[in-house]
């Protein structure tokens, strides 16, 4: 199991929370800088897949500072609930939402992806942006997402993946191994966070491997949509009626 801090005895869940707490003050800036702003385009393309599906209530897991929850407003839901294990990230997210005047539409709260504090069949859609690779137990998290999703509901996951073809594979490997950790170290106070990122992407079962796990957790009508040469992938699944 890949963890942010290799010299700690804490579990992955606690370490991930500590990591995001430590970088929360720079997270939005670093996210857009290190991706060249393309993460905004990825979120936009992903959310479009949920348009015109009659979605009224959305759960955004690993919501962080709320970027994906805010993007989800474009599908015109009545309510969006965002959960995250990092209090630091949520604090910045709540302030952002307050400044935008969106408190009536978006609520952010502390929550564990593997023990979601919601009853069965509660949401029309579940979204996760760059969060599932941080789950301590991937299958447990996916199964709990399936539990709180309404029959007929959609699960939309946006996650980094490993490019498979030349030249993107070679370019991405160089960038993630050398440039990303260096930039992260210079700008944030937690260099481990930006060595963990490429390590966690490398270890994540992406593409067809993720689809197999996705389906084994109950999701059907699954799709895998690689973007930007395979740097990022969209996974869409549905809970059968």
Whole-angstrom Rg: 17 Å
CATH topology (level 3) name: Rossmann fold
From N to C, what is the helix and strand string?
HHHEHEHEEHEHHHEE
The CATH architecture can be named as: 3-Layer(aba) Sandwich
Indicate how many domains the architecture comprises.
1
CATH superfamily name? Vaccinia Virus protein VP39
Q: Please tell me the overall pLDDT.
A: 93
Q: Helical amount among residues, as a percent range?
A: 40-55%
Structural class from helices and strands? Answer: alpha/beta
Contiguous uncertain segments of 5+ residues: none
Account of the protein in words:
The protein has 241 residues and is an alpha/beta fold. The protein has one domain (12-238): 3-Layer(aba) Sandwich (Rossmann fold), CATH 3.40.50.150. 42% of the residues lie in helices and 21% in strands. It is built from nine helices and seven strands. The chain has helices at residues 12-23, 27-34, 38-48, 67-71, 87-99, 138-148, 168-187, 191-203, 208-216, and strands at residues 57-61, 79-84, 106-110, 123-129, 149-160, 220-227, 232-238. Strands 3-2-1-4-5-7-6 form a seven-stranded mixed sheet, sandwiched between helices. α5 (87-99) links the parallel β2 (79-84) and β3 (106-110). α7 runs antiparallel to α8 (191-203). The mean pLDDT is 93.
């Amino acid at each position: 199991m890949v963890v942010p801090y290799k010299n700690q005895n804490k579990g992955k869940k606690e370490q991930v929370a500590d990591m995001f707490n430590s970088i929360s003050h720079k997270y939005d800036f670093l996210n857009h800088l290190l991706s060249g702003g393309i993460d905004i385009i990825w979120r936009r393309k992903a959310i479009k897949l949920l348009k015109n599906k009659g979605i009224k209530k959305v759960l955004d897991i690993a919501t962080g500072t709320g970027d994906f929850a805010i993007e989800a407003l474009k599908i015109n839901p009545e309510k969006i609930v965002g959960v995250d294990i990092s209090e630091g990230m949520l604090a910045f997210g709540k302030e952002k939402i307050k400044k935008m005047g969106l408190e009536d539409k978006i609520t952010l709260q502390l929550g564990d992806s593997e023990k979601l504090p919601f009853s069965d069949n509660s949401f029309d859609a579940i979204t996760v942006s760059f969060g599932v690779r941080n789950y301590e137990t991937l299958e447990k998290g996916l199964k709990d997402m399936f539990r709180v999703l309404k029959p007929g509901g959609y699960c939309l996951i946006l996650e980094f993946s490993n490019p498979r073809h030349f030249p993107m594979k070679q370019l991405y490997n160089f960038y993630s191994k050398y440039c990303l950790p260096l930039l992260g170290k210079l700008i944030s106070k937690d260099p481990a966070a930006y060595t963990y990122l490429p390590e966690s992407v490398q270890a994540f079962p992406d593409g067809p491997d993720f689809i197999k796990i996705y389906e084994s957790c109950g999701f059907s009508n699954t799709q895998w949509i690689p973007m930007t040469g395979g740097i990022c992938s969209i996974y869409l699944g549905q809970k059968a009626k």
